[in-house]
Write a structure and sequence with these properties.
mainly alpha, 0% strand
């Protein structure tokens, strides 16, 4: 058995080594075309960081890209202060993200078809090109769930400091843990000690953010709340829920995982909350070895085809959302 596992791991590393140049080239080409939209502000921010001091980074981030996070602006400052071209530096971050996604999928024995569909997924392309800070948060989340123990806890804990929206994963984590305790709780009002510890651990980032970053979180929430939520956005999460229930053996668990996203989308709206819901479903179905279910494969094919007009807009208009 160990020989088979070693052989699989060796093939995974060889395949990844072959994919690294492709990851970088695709990312670099797309980023060179992506010149409009939010990238106008991020290019200006990156240029300003080249001539800024360490202590100037937070104020610059707030003024130029409305960021009150800590990790993302300073990570961008490292590349800028070293004089690395922005598109090269972001492409390197994209390689790190895609490598983590690939390793995580292969670790869970996901088929090559699904690997390709996830790497070409609409939301993956958005992360590579448009969602700069959220990309960095996803790097931390991806490697957080890839590793275990204290490394996992640290990476997941710090992910909201790269982008506050990573906090939206934590209610699903809590609901996933509590799924096994639902009947026990409603029948006997009890909860396992192990579940209680996990819930408390997942709540720590909320309290930490509320204590140290409340102004930033509140400002971001206020901005999203003032936006209108379309019926289409709510329809997306409903379709995702139906597909997830069809694919999973643990229907109550997947419903509980998705439950927090409904009020989030109704309250905050936007493409990114749906992105987080899709990612949560992909992760939990992957762990359950159900990503190859026909319903889920059909949904992933749809998301891959959805990438085509986005890439077309990037090349023609310089903005995927044009």
């Amino acid at each position: 058995m160990s020989i088979i596992l070693d052989s699989c791991q060796s093939r995974t590393k060889i395949h990844l080594a072959a994919l690294l140049p492709l990851f970088f080239i695709v990312s670099y080409v797309l980023l060179n075309y992506y010149t409009e939209g939010d990238q106008i502000h991020y290019h200006r921010f990156y240029e300003a960081l080249k001539y800024s001091e360490f202590s100037d980074v937070p104020s610059l981030a707030v003024a130029m890209v409305s960021s009150r996070e800590i990790i993302s602006p300073y990570l961008l400052w490292v590349g800028a202060s070293l004089g690395i071209d922005k598109n090269i530096y972001i492409s390197a971050l994209n390689v790190i993200l895609l490598s983590g996604v690939y390793l995580l999928l292969r670790k869970n024995n996901v088929s090559w078809l699904v690997v390709i569909l996830i790497l070409t997924n609409f939301y993956t392309v958005v992360l590579l090109t448009s969602a700069e800070r959220l990309k960095i948060a996803f790097i931390l989340v991806t490697y957080g769930v890839y590793f275990s123990g204290w490394v996992r806890n640290i990476l997941l804990f710090f992910s909201p400091m790269a982008h506050f929206q990573a906090l939206l994963f934590f209610p699903s984590i809590i609901f996933n843990v509590l799924e096994k305790d639902v009947k026990s709780f409603f029948m006997r009002f009890t909860i396992r000690k192990s579940s209680f510890r996990v819930v408390m651990a997942a709540m720590v980032p909320f309290f930490f953010m509320a204590l140290f970053f409340w102004d930033g979180v509140f400002t971001k929430i206020s901005w999203y709340v003032n936006r209108d939520t379309s019926v289409f956005e709510l329809a997306n999460i409903l379709i995702l829920s139906i597909v997830a229930v069809l694919a999973t053996k643990h229907k109550l668990r997947i419903l509980m995982i998705l439950l927090p996203f409904y009020p989030m989308i109704a309250l905050l709206g936007g493409i990114r909350v749906n992105m987080l819901a899709v990612v949560a479903v992909i992760y939990f179905l992957m762990v359950e070895k159900k990503l190859n279910h026909p319903a889920m494969v059909a949904l992933l094919i749809y998301f891959s085809f959805k990438s085509i007009p986005f890439v077309h807009n990037v090349i023609v208009y310089g903005n995927g959302f044009a």
